[in-house]
Amino acid sequence: MSRLAALVALIGAATLATCSYAPMPTNGAQMCAAGTGKECPDGYHCATDARGRYCYQDGNGGAGGTSSGAAGKGGAGGHATAGGTGQGGSATGGVGGQQMCEPAFANTWTGNFSTIDSGNVMGPTMSVAQGGGSFSIVATRTVTGTTGANIGIAWTFDPCANASQFSGVSFSIAGSVTGCSVLFQVDDTERSGGGNGGPAVTVGAVSGTPQTVMLPWTTSGGQPGGPIDGSRVAILIWGFSIAPSATCMANVTIGDLTFY
Predict the structure, then answer these.
(1) Which residues of the chain have pLDDT under 50?
(2) Residues sharing a CB contact under 8 Å with residue 185, sequence separation 6 or more, in sequence order
(3) In sequence order, what are the beta bridge partners of 5?
């Protein structure tokens, strides 16, 4: 199966969606982020209960306004951004021109979906379920000639996610796929563009029964090779590799997308 390492360079210019991916987490279901950055998503605060420190919607689970502000971000000598409600954000710009990554939560993400085309083969279409908890990818694409094609859907974090407190990323997939193989790839900021690409895992046969796919940060591969830098996660890619003179028919639903 062909790798999708170069696909990021082909991400379609049209943005499909710019949003926070997941619905608002249930009160007390999401742990507060570690460190000095933003502890909970917007509209939530960090409160201590019998289990430890968890995120609650403002007005629930204790007094609001206890969450830390988001850290400022910027390039070398970068601009500072204001902190959120609570403690002020850091006024420190990026070091050496490296962009600051936002503290990550399990499944409350800011970014956008994009399509990935391959030459004359258009990328798949997709739709996000109401509430944002899952999304569907549909494609019927035929490759003519002797050269195969790689198409897909990419989620790009804005700006990037510091998910170092987690072990990796996982999701469920169900549906049907014929005439092509499915690959899931994670790019960190070192490997996100041009001919670069991060480690990937091949998804097994897809059926109507959901299967869980997990890709830990310790997974090695990509260009250049090595494990994923969980502190600088940039792009997630669901790719479909189509052989020469073949027709790919894919209709899948991705759900339970989360850092774990």
Answers:
(1) 1-3, 5-15, 17-18, 23, 63-96
(2) 3, 4, 5, 7, 197, 198, 199, 200, 236, 237, 239
(3) none
- 105 within 8 A of 54, measured Cβ to Cβ: no
Q: Residue 102: beta bridge partners?
A: 161
Contacts of 53 (CB under 8 A, 6+ apart): 31, 32, 39, 46, 47
Tokens (6 digits) for 220: 């090695």
Token digits for 215?
């890709």
User: Alpha-carbon distance 149 to 72, whole Å?
Assistant: 40
Whether residue 224 is preceded by a cis peptide bond, meaning omega within 30 degrees of 0, is yes
How far is CA 33 from its chain centroid? 17
Cα separation, 113 vs 234, in Å, equals 12
Residue ranges and CATH numbers for the domains of the chain are 7-21+107-259 (2.60.120), 24-104 (no CATH)
Q: What's the predicted TM-score (pTM) here?
A: 0.71
Q: What is the DSSP letter of 24?
A: P
Residue with tokens 């700006």: 159
Asked whether 199 and 219 are in contact (CB, 8 A), the reply is yes
Q: What is d(CA 54, CA 45) in angstroms, rounded to the nearest whole number? A: 8
> Quick one: pLDDT at residue 26?
67
For the segment 167-223, what is each residue's pLDDT rounded down to a tens digit?
999 999 999 999 999 999 999 999 987 778 999 999 999 999 999 999 999 999 999
